[in-house]
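This protein record is not my work; I was only asked to verify it. The record follows directly below this note.
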Amino acid sequence: MIIEYIRYVIPADQEQAFLSAYRDAAAELRGSEHCLDYEISRCVEDPASFVVRIRWGSLEGHLQGFRKAASFPSFFAKVKPFYERIQEMRHYASTDIAGAGGGASG
């Protein structure tokens, strides 16, 4: 499994269009066998900062599977207007350091 993080800075007058674009683009993510899950988070201290987190089954599944799939042009067309707002777009591997905190239920 690999985690893709995309950090954006989105001006206030574009935030609704940005969120709407990703809501629409989520259809392609949901339809991809390579995408495990995804989420968009917004920074509390700096509301113009957003992080898109996508978990892929593998780096190859993302780059060779999803990006070469017939659905990718549709996905990219939806988010492309915000491409220049990207601050970082990288893939990360999890480490062995993880766990639930004391406030986690279950």
In short: The CA atoms of residues 99 and 105 lie 12 Å apart. The chain has a mean pLDDT of 97. Residues 2-92 form a domain with the Alpha-Beta Plaits fold (CATH 3.30.70.100). The chain has one domain: 2-92.
